[in-house]
């Protein structure tokens, strides 16, 4: 049986690129470049690359990028966009829980819940971090965003989603947040690339900073910094607060 995230991304490449949360690519890549020290000799792994928005932009700026995703549909859209822009990216289909890479990359990125936090168990989410760590060289760096578990303790996820939804885009309804598991359960209603309206029962895991720090320390990351994640405007100067829906994590081996 397919999981919700597999069904969601079956035929959702073009519509995905129109979603509000995918519009911050340029600013996010500015931050990634800064963290990479503008070194064009490094190799970058984009885990859960989706339609390749970060992979393509970074490759356009001169970086060597490998983008992996579970969805054939998303990867096809990514390849199409890369061709149209005459940009070279090595797109490969892989499950982030079983990556074939070891000590290959200088930098790994997972932006916009591309893989981590979508899995159905905490163990599976941890496997993604484990595989990201394994793919990195010594002194490698991991940059990712995840849902901020501090936010639902002070705010309604349901209200936040409603306030940030636009007509014609995907809609989340019936949000319920489980304090024992830190998972938000909801129904996602969206229109696929063929114009068919679909409804899926989804759930995502929220993490608090201390959990992320502990998980990364257990994978031998030596320096872990956590910030608030502002769409299209990642910055080390944004201290994480209960007002941030997402957190930005930068971890160095």
- Report the count of strand segments: 10
Count, helices: 9
- The SS-based structural class is alpha/beta
Uncertain residue ranges: none
Largest sheet strand order: 3-2-1-4-5-10-9
Beta percentage is 25-35%
Termini separation comes to 37 Å
Largest sheet: 7 strands, mixed
Evaluate the radius of gyration.
17 Å
Q: How helix-rich are the residues, as a percent range? A: 25-40%
Taking all residues together, what is the mean pLDDT?
Answer: 87
- The coarse overall form would be globular
The ordered string of helix (H) and strand (E) elements is HHHEHEHEEHEHHEEEHEE
Describe the 3D structure.
The protein is an alpha/beta fold and 253 residues long. The protein is built from nine helices and ten strands. A seven-stranded mixed β-sheet has the order 3-2-1-4-5-10-9, with helices on both faces. The chain has a three-stranded antiparallel β-sheet with strand order 6-7-8. Strand 1 (43-47), helix 4 and strand 2 form a beta-alpha-beta unit.
Layout of secondary structure:
Layout: H1 4-8, H2 13-18, H3 25-35, E1 43-47, H4 53-60, E2 64-69, H5 72-84, E3 90-93, E4 105-110, H6 122-135, E5 136-147, H7 151-154, H8 157-163, E6 171-178, E7 183-191, E8 197-205, H9 209-218, E9 223-228, E10 246-252
Parallel strand pairs: 1-2, 1-4, 2-3, 4-5
Antiparallel strand pairs: 5-10, 6-7, 7-8, 9-10
Helix pairs in contact: 3-4
Which characteristics define this entry?
alpha/beta, 10 strands, seven-stranded mixed beta sheet, 253 residues, globular, 31% helix
Brief account:
The protein is α/β, with parallel strands linked by helices. 31% of the residues lie in helices and 28% in strands.
């Amino acid at each position: 049986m397919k999981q919700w995230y597999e069904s969601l991304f079956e035929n959702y490449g073009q519509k995905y690129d129109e979603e509000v949360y995918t519009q911050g690519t340029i600013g996010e890549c500015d931050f990634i470049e800064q963290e990479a020290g503008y070194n064009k000799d490094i190799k970058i792994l984009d885990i859960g690359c989706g339609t390749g928005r970060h992979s393509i932009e970074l490759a356009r700026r001169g970086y060597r990028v490998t983008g992996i995703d579970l969805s054939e549909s998303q990867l096809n859209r990514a390849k199409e966009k890369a061709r149209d822009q005459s940009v070279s990216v090595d797109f490969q289909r892989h499950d982030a829980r079983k990556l074939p890479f070891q000590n290959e990359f200088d930098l790994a990125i997972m932006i916009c819940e591309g893989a981590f936090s979508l899995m159905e168990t905490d163990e599976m989410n941890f496997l993604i971090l484990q595989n990201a760590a394994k793919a990195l060289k010594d002194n490698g760096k991991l940059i990712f965003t995840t849902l901020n578990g501090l936010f639902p303790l002070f705010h309604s996820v349901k209200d936040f989603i409603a306030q940030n939804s636009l007509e014609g885009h995907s809609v989340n309804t019936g949000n319920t947040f489980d304090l024992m598991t830190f998972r938000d359960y909801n129904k996602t209603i969206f229109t696929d690339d063929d114009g068919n309206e679909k409804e899926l029962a989804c759930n995502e895991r929220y993490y608090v900073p201390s959990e992320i720090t502990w998980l990364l320390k257990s994978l031998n990351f030596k320096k872990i910094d956590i910030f608030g994640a502002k769409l299209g405007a990642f910055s080390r100067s944004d201290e994480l607060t209960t007002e941030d829906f997402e957190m930005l994590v930068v971890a160095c081996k």
